[in-house]
Amino acid sequence: MFRAQPQMNKLVECVPNFSEGRDLALVDEIVAAVKTAKVFNVHSDPDHNRTVVTMVGGPQEVKQAAFDLTLRAMQLLNIREHEGEHPYIGVVDVIPFVPVSCPLPEVLCLVRELGEELWQKLALPVYYYGESALKPERKELPFVRRGGYHLLCQEINIPERQPDVGHDLHFSAGVVAVGVRDFLIAFNVNLKTTDLDIAKSIAKNIREKSGGLKGVRALGISLLSRGITQVSINLCDHRMTSLKKVFAEVKNWAQEYQVEILESELVGMIPQEAVFEGMADYLKLASFIDKQILVVV
Questions:
Q1: Can you tell me the distance from the alpha carbon of 91 to that of 78, in angstroms, rounded to the nearest whole number?
Q2: β-strand partners of 43
Q3: pLDDT above 90 as % of the chain
Q4: Exposed (0-12), middle (13-18) or buried (19+): which is 5, by Cβ within 10 Å?
Q5: Is residue 278 part of a domain?
Q6: Same structural domain, 160 and 75
Q7: SS3 letters for the chain?
Q8: Is residue 284 located within the same domain as residue 203?
């Protein structure tokens, strides 16, 4: 459990996602590049072929850590060789910043600084999303990432798809989305079935875009290494829709399709206010540790 103390008046969480989740030696080498911020969680998934790193620190320290991680990932990975179930547009796909106890305007400036540095020093084109989006339609990450890397290769020079900073695609690293957002809870529910249509149908039924739960994004994914499927969920506003509510909805639809929920998992850290009594049992969490809880006091 990490406690953000009152004297930590400028604390920022950063959650870079990079496109490698199978070669754990490579993952370790990329994460080892982080020297200026505290890494609290590293979650790698072989089917998603993706790693999510959660780190916390002061604004400049976290910005430097995000730059250093991106540089190392660009040195070791090639997006043209990447394959994975999760949508992606670059070797470092997205770098979100969360103002834990730091003024939003300062974090917005931080993101602009990082975007310029990634282009000027690494020739990595940048899209701004979330609260830092320069275009209203780019506030939502799925819009920025729509069609993934392969479609972006075809559309990068269309005016509405051109990066906010830089141009074209980096030959081996693609592009990156950098933004400021509120806490997001990444939550996966594993189903005892190989029928991908069922996972996709449940995802469609629960996501806001299709008329489901407010603040919920969801995808149906095959976990080929385990012979099961998964409903991969991003809970963008846990105050509007709780973890308990979203799990209950998945459970209802699973029962409708006569499919068993094997387990669930939380990726990275979650704010204390999203935790509830008996959560691990209720959500059928495969693993959960106190270090995944971020407490702001």
A1: 7
A2: 52
A3: 87
A4: exposed
A5: yes
A6: yes
A7: CEEECCCCCCCEEECCEECCCCCHHHHHHHHCCCCCCEEEEEEEECCCCEEEEEEEECHHHHHHHHHHHHHHHHHHCCHHHCCCCCCCCECEEEEEEEECCCCHHHHHHHHHHHHHHHHHHHCCCEEEEECCCCCHHHHCHHHHCCCHHHHHHHHCCCHHHCCCECCCCECCCECEEEEECCCCEEEEEEECCCCHHHHHHHHHHHCHHHCCCCCEEEEEEEECCCCEEEEEEEECCCCCCCHHHHHHHHHHHHHHCCCCEEEEEEECCEEHHHCCCCHHHHCCECCCCHHHEEEEC
A8: yes
The pTM score is 0.89
Q: Residue 265: which domain range?
A: 185-288
Q: Which residues pair with 185 in a beta bridge?
A: 235
- For residues 246-263, average pLDDT: 97
Instruction: List active site positions.
Output: 86
pLDDT category of residue 115 using cuts at 50, 70 and 90: very high
Six-digit token string for 46: 């072989």
In this structure, is residue 264 part of a structural domain?
yes
Q: Domain check: are 60 and 201 in the same one?
A: no
Closest CA to 132 of 165, 64, 179, 72: 179
What is the average pLDDT across 150-169?
96
Clarify whether residues 21 and 134 are in a common domain.
yes
- Identify whether 132 is part of a domain: yes
Tokens of 129: 């999303």
